Amino acid sequence: MAEPGGEETDGTAAAAVGVVTVWHSALNGGDVERLVGLSDPAIVVGGPRGTGSGTQLLREWVERAKVRLEPLRIVPRGESVVVEQAATWEDADPDPPAVVASVFTVRNGRVASVVRYDDLETALWAVAEADDAAGGGENAGTTTG
């Protein structure tokens, strides 16, 4: 499900995309135990309401948010996977889904962090900034649209 022509060029990127895809399936299927199993025990969860860590916070977020995140576009970026998503909330009006983006970091076969952004461009920029701060990577300072 990675974007055609994207940067998924090695097994590590493919494995990370696979973990993120299964993570979305667990979230959207309401399988909290599977979601927790796919997540690092110290997972960092971030978004418009702040950032915290741990699987208990993840459980609370799933229960409180009651959100479905349908992947629209997946862009591997180093150890990060940026996902543009159609977001719908159980308690919200039945309007068209909001289009948001999340940055996932996958380590040792588990989601180590997931941070939501308002849009794909902002999420890609955040990854580029993090790469730049970490000493740069081949994608530092670049975005795609």
Q: Can you characterise this structure?
A:
The chain is α+β, with helices and mostly antiparallel strands. It has a single domain, classed as Nuclear Transport Factor 2, Chain: A (Roll). It has four helices and six strands. Strands 2-1-6-5-4-3 form a six-stranded mixed sheet, with helices on both faces. A hairpin with an 8-residue loop joins β4 and β5. The longest helix is centred in the N-terminal third of the chain and has 18 residues. It is globular, with a radius of gyration of 14 Å. The N terminus and C terminus are likely disordered.
Outline:
With 145 residues, the protein is α+β, with helices and mostly antiparallel strands. It is built from 4 helices and 6 strands, in the order ααββαββββα.
Primary descriptors:
six-stranded mixed sheet; Nuclear Transport Factor 2, Chain: A; disordered N terminus; globular; disordered C terminus; 145 residues; 4 helices; alpha+beta; 6 strands
Task: Detail the topology: elements first, then pairings.
Elements: H1 11-28, H2 32-37, E1 39-47, E2 50-53, H3 55-65, E3 67-77, E4 80-89, E5 98-107, E6 110-117, H4 120-133
Parallel strand pairs: 1-6
Antiparallel strand pairs: 1-2, 3-4, 4-5, 5-6
The order of strands across the largest sheet is 2-1-6-5-4-3
The low-pLDDT segments are 1-9, 139-145
Termini, distance in Å?
Answer: 17 Å
Strand content: 35-45%
